Amino acid sequence: MSSSSSLSLDGLELNQVFFKSIANSNPPSQTNHHTKISVIGVGNVGMAIAQTILTQDLVDELALVDANSDKLRGEMLDLQHAAAFLPRTKIVASADYTVTAGSDLCIVTAGARQNPGESRLNLLQRNLAMYKSIVPELVKYSPECILLIVSNPVDVLTYVAWKLSGFPVNRVIGSGTNLDSSRFRFLIADHLDVNAQDVQAYIVGEHGDSSVALWSSISVGGIPVLSFLESQQIAFEKDTLEKIHKQVVQSAYEVINLKGYTSWAIGYSVANLAFSIIRDQRRIHPVSILAKGFYGIDGGDVFLSLPAQLGRNGVLGVTNVHLTDEEIQQLRNSAETILEVQNQLGI
């Protein structure tokens, strides 16, 4: 499904009536790259991502995929009807993965929801089964794409997507702690009454309870915060820092309790990642990547968030951020937490 209607007069396309071709003109150049992003899953998160991508004038074509054909068509039409207010983008949708063919970036938000009383492992097994039907189809129709995984638990499912795809590690990325870090920067900015864009601060590790706040590398306007406070002999309580980190971890739960789901922040976060990748911005984002070999993590092929440079080829490298011994140990503990769950999947 690509449009709600097809306009023609006795078989003659209307554009041929309104516009007369220029004599001796050449066909469109094949060197102009047609940029395409596919979003798999049109729930609250998927549609927030799709809507934000559209407002950024990032792609020539946006493809939506979902098993619920009625909701899928409704979401497609709703976006198409906003065409007069958006940059020109072709919007297509189908339950068939052929619609994703030729994508530069495939964003997977689809995932099973946890049932009351269901174990995390059982939920993971259901998501694994879902990914076994999604990932091979994306690889089939877009063998050169970058996979961006958003479904939770994102670190384990990014590993699953990597194993199922057969892609090199630079082309499989999880949204990871990019949003956690945004929440972190907001809270620090709020405490200091500055713009969050002037705060450099990262949450790394698991996108979850074992995440690690890199307090030692926080800077505001280029000034390292903790070392500045120490040089000015200004005392600060470690408890205060831990409370801010706890707020970050609890933020999603609070939003879910209040409105039933999260959507806008993750929408902006993932669209921000898409922008860095498609436009080859080479910006640093804390995203879930294969962490083996970094900071002494060597227990297995575990994906967790580290500050990584992103561009048109996916992950270009990992930033050599200085971590304290305590932060390194916390990061290793986070890796072990993810591995424990991952090892139970049997893939």
TrEMBL record:
Keywords: NAD, Oxidoreductase. The keyword NAD applies. It is an enzyme of class 1 (oxidoreductase). SUPFAM superfamilies: LDH C-terminal domain-like (SSF56327), NAD(P)-binding Rossmann-fold domains (SSF51735). It catalyses: (S)-lactate + NAD(+) = pyruvate + NADH + H(+). Pathway: Fermentation; pyruvate fermentation to lactate; (S)-lactate from pyruvate: step 1/1. Residues 177-341 form the Lactate/malate dehydrogenase C-terminal domain. Residues 35-174 form the Lactate/malate dehydrogenase N-terminal domain. Its EC number is 1.1.1.27. Belongs to the LDH/MDH superfamily. LDH family. This is L-lactate dehydrogenase. It comes from Solanum pennellii (Tomato). The lineage of its organism: Eukaryota, Viridiplantae, Streptophyta, Embryophyta, Tracheophyta.
